[in-house]
User: Fold these one by one.
Assistant:
Number 1:
Amino acid sequence: KKQAPIDLKTFHSSPIYYLIPALNRQTGKVDYFSNRDGTDIHEVMRATKAMPIAFKLSPNVDINNSTYCDSCLSSSAGKHLEKAVELGAKKVLIVDNSVKNSSNDLEDIFFNFWVYAQNRSFRRNYANAELKARDYQPPVEIELFDIRPKEPLAVSTLNNNQESLIATIQQGYDETSSNKELADFLK
């Protein structure tokens, strides 16, 4: 909001339909916010990056009379593929930046402890949504292309300093600008 302000008028009138996921702390389900629903985009961006433990022990970003945070589920490519197909997408590009390394595994362990500390209804909904996302198979007519980093990223949940962000952006640019299969898919 302060470092790189968004031109809100352009964002809200964009022909591109943005969907931004966040975990509803009351329901244990992922809710989607868009550039067309009038929600405060700055709060949505805070919520979608408010990972439990890393952000604070119990993150709560208030949006529309509910509280939200980030989660492994709201960061899941499978969950979003299902949503894209539900909304009528016929061609889907998945940008998966979830390259696992030992520090991510530790983050997953802490996050799983956090989920376990939530109420029973939350845990049940969250587990059901995780299973559904993991097992989701899109219809055969959906054209899919998946890109992911070839090497581990310089950033992580616990390390997002400016130098690491710049290195990650450069890595993404280098890997995608030379990807012939991606260029063919986007034609």
Number 2:
Amino acid sequence: QVGKLVSERLAVTDPQNVRTDGHEIISRISANREGAPQIVTTNFDHLFEYAIKKNPVEKYVPPTFPDLQHDVPVTGITYLHGRLSEHAADRYDYVLSSSDFGRAYLAQGWATSFIRQLLKKYIVVLLGYQAEDPPVKYLLQGLNIGHGDSNKRLYAFDEGSADSIETKWQDRGVTPIAYPQSEEHQALWET
């Protein structure tokens, strides 16, 4: 029921009228040398797809992600926590509940494995995550143990003063990038 409700609430009936300015910027700055976006998102919605509509891209959903151990590149959109399904689907595979997180990051561990490999092969920039989010906090703290080099490959944009942002992210192996507080994160988008 929850999965169905999520699908109904996030469904877009008129994609032409959806604002995707931020998604277009992210797809552009995440692109590899060939111009293909390299996006890993925990969002379910299709907003990145609407933003990239002129060039259809590969889409990956759990637990089938690009095999980074065998040098399959991360191109297109990887939906780490699931991709929005039709609201009349038989099944909704979203990472929403604590049991879903436990399955994705602990019991089956496909999300943890993918993120670990991602950090080995790519420079990763987090956007829209909070240092206090329990799943993000625990995962990053766990991956940071004994891996001092991870903070050279992992960055996070966060809103506030540089000192407060540094303090929030310090034990997570993340190099924070502070930007001033503004309405609807306007200061971030203006950069």
Number 3:
Amino acid sequence: MVDENTTTDGVGDGDASGPYDRPPLSRGQRAAATARSWALTLLLAVALLALVAWLRGGPELPGGPPAFYATATSGEAVSLDTLRGRAAVVYFWATWCSACKLTTPQVNAFAAANPDVGVIAVTTDSRAEVDRWLGGETPPFPMITDGDAIAAAWQVRALPTIFVLDAEGQIRSSRSGVLIPGELWLRTR
């Protein structure tokens, strides 16, 4: 006689609990599991894209960074010489650039938290466009407007582009695209 709770392979279906004996998930539990799966997939995709962007880098300038002399929106004279003796960041951006809208707050926060690192921003926009975009706020670093000639000399082909210079004024790294959080801190150390 065969017990009705025993299958032919000898595994009981009665009181024994196996991996396939769990009750079905509710609609909410399935939705939560699906959301977790999508979130993990998205997180991994973002991490992979950030890694690719990190490795891609920006322009290489044989012979070092081209010198420039300009007047910042604050009225101060700005050049690479003003950055000598400390690590520095030269940030090329534009008001119309979507990726710049994500990167600029990171550059602002970095500059405010790291006063020992020199930061200069260069945009090809006019002073009026930048003033309108800033909405009366003062950037925490010198801002150069109408920087088309500087961007061309630095071979900037995409925005945003960031150059990190060492204390001797030589390019340590360059990067085009949206920054990942903490990236400037890592690149300037």
